[in-house]
Design brief:
The chain is 50% helix and 15% strand. It is α/β, with parallel strands linked by helices and 565 residues long. It folds into 4 domains: 142 residues, Resolvase, N-terminal catalytic domain (Rossmann fold, 3-Layer(aba) Sandwich), CATH 3.40.50.1390; 111 residues, Putative Large Serine Recombinase, Chain B, Domain 2 (Hect, E3 ligase catalytic domain fold), CATH 3.90.1750.20; 140 residues, no CATH class; 67 residues, no CATH class.
């Protein structure tokens, strides 16, 4: 007696054409086909997916993957998989061959009720042709659908199933839809644009109309409210796929829409400038362990007018084992300003820098260092052109863009001043002096100009207390310096003759200088704490000071800064 052959039936719903089989018909024909072939088809081995094999990837079809897993089991419960047509199995050639091979490797065969493949190499070729034809059919169908939707949009029809807030869809025939204004909702949209042009932020507008920040943002950026049908690329919003002027009634004018965009962009620039100023060393300040330093703020204590900003190692806060102490922003700024004035802006330093920069210019290094400035200048000119086009096309009056144009021109002048060092011509000392004077002026400000000047001069700061390792760059000439974060303590030669309180002050300064912790560096710091300084006696103070005087750190600090010993 021949062994029983068990089969599985996989069916999928399709609504693409009227000639496609319904699920019920596919099941009935599948049962008849298995009976005719002499195979046993159990009810639990009928797998149904109601999603398109093209629109939904094979790995996302739940019943399909369940069937494949059973077929690939060590002892599969069936040795045949039956489909109505190959396109029920997969409509992507890659998916089709991938899962067919998985079945074949486990001796499970694929059969179609309406198609034959044959055996051997010829059968595999025929199967591949069927997979490719299925993929071609789906691609062609999708292209036709997109073409039809685009043509309908060009004729002024709304092809999306959902209308923007403020509109409703209505049908002017049995098939196509257009948009008309819902005045009650449109009044809310107009109010949102009006608030935006007054400089209101998303949160304030949302509280006014009862919308979330995200919904306010999407409404204010929806160009369809101007009456134009606009479709944009989903991944690149700057790319316009379709624009049909005056396709439906406008809720806001183009001038109001453009003004709202400028106000939103202006707020974004202001936020960026504020963030940049508050985090002066973001991106260039790193811990010796390699981690970035995170900015934190301490509010002003009672009786004081200002708080302060400090940076702490991100890895330390995460329990990495780093025990680096925190550093204050104002302290680092003072050290850098002194370093820049002494090592970069002094007459001797400028002369040396001039010679090195000219050498680098001849070697082509200066041209590489100014490429980003050329890109920024090109972007600036492009923004100016776009504003001029808005005025030329009567979309925005000149008065409304006057401030933006002025700021762009100021920025362009600053960029062009930096680019006065033409790589193909010798550097002029007068031009270099102009650059240095501008940087000096910017460093004395307390806004975004200081931030830009710092990044133009400082490449990297590594916190390795008690030292800071600083890499500077001016005219593509890089130098590395080492500074002490705290001033090295002065230790008199006759320190042993001082009274206890004077010795305690010296020890306290030494501990601060070397970075010895007085409290846990983080939650993960398990180092043992010594008792408070005010409890130390001479028997402890003298050996501590003597030990410091014998360290290499004391020798370096004395030689570098001339500390008395």
């Amino acid at each position: 007696m021949a062994p029983h052959v068990y089969a599985a039936l996989y069916i999928r719903k399709s609504n693409e054409t009227e000639e496609q089989k319904s699920l019920k018909d596919q099941i009935a024909e599948g049962r008849e086909y298995c009976k005719r072939m002499g195979w046993t088809l159990r009810d639990e081995h009928i797998f149904i997916d109601e999603e398109s094999a093209y629109l939904k990837p094979a790995e996302k079809r739940q019943s399909f993957i369940e069937m494949v897993n059973l077929a690939c089991a060590k002892k599969p419960l069936f040795s045949r998989v039956v489909v109505w047509k190959v396109d029920r199995f997969a409509r992507r050639t890659h998916d089709g061959f991938k899962y067919w091979q998985m079945l074949a490797d486990n001796d499970v065969e694929l059969f179609s009720m309406t198609q034959t493949f044959g055996e051997g190499a010829g059968g595999k070729l025929n199967l591949g042709i069927h997979f490719m034809m299925a993929e071609y059919y789906s691609d062609d169908l999708s292209e036709n659908v997109r073409r039809g939707l685009r043509n309908a949009s060009i004729l002024g029809y709304w092809t999306s199933s959902k209308a923007p807030f403020g509109y409703e869809r209505y049908s002017d025939d049995d098939k196509n839809h257009r948009l008309r204004i819902v005045e009650e909702d449109a009044a809310i949209v107009r109010h949102m644009f009006e608030c935006s042009t007054k400089g209101w932020g998303l949160r304030r507008i949302g509280a006014e109309v009862g919308f979330s920040d995200g919904r306010v943002w999407s409404t204010l950026h929806n160009e369809n409210y101007t009456g134009d049908r606009v479709q944009r690329n989903k991944t690149n919003r700057e790319k316009v796929l379709l624009r049909v002027p005056n396709a439906h009634p406008a809720i806001v004018t183009k001038a109001i829409f453009e003004k709202a965009q400028r106000c939103l962009n202006s707020r974004d620039r202001a936020k960026n400038r504020e963030a940049v100023t508050e985090s002066l060393y973001k991106g260039i300040l790193r811990c010796v362990c390699g981690s970035a330093m995170r900015k934190s703020t301490v509010r002003a204590a009672r009786g004081r007018t200002h708080g302060y900003v400090y940076y702490q190692c991100r890895a330390k806060m995460g329990g990495s084992g780093c025990l680096s102490a925190n550093v204050r922003e104002d302290k680092i700024t003072d050290l850098l300003l002194d370093l820049i004035a002494d090592k970069l802006f002094s007459d001797k330093a400028i002369k040396t820098m001039y010679k090195l920069a000219e050498t680098k210019r001849q070697n082509g290094d200066l041209e590489k260092a100014t490429r980003h400035l050329h890109r920024e200048l090109a972007d600036n000119k492009g923004q100016q052109r776009r504003l001029i086009e808005l005025v030329r096309d009567d979309i925005v009056p000149m008065d409304e863009i006057k401030d933006d144009m002025h700021q762009l021109k100021v920025d362009a002048d600053a960029l062009e001043a930096k680019l006065d060092f033409a790589p193909e011509e010798p550097i002029k000392p007068a031009v270099m002096k102009t650059l240095v004077n501008r940087l000096k002026r910017d460093l004395l400000t307390d806004n975004v100009k200081r931030h830009d000047a710092m990044r133009e001069l400082i490449q990297k700061i590594v916190v390795d207390l008690p030292q800071l390792h600083i890499t500077t760059s001016l005219m593509a000439v890089e130098e590395t310096y080492e500074l002490f974060y705290h001033t090295p303590p002065v230790v008199p030669k006759d320190y042993s003759n001082l009274d206890v309180q004077q010795k305690r002050n010296i020890v306290s300064n030494i501990r601060r200088f070397v970075g010895e912790p007085q409290w846990p560096a983080s939650f993960y710091d398990n180092r043992e704490r010594s008792k408070p300084i005010n409890q130390w006696k001479s028997a402890q103070l003298d050996p501590y000071i003597a030990n410091y005087l014998n360290t290499e750190l004391f020798s370096i600090s004395s030689n570098t800064l001339g500390i008395a010993s």
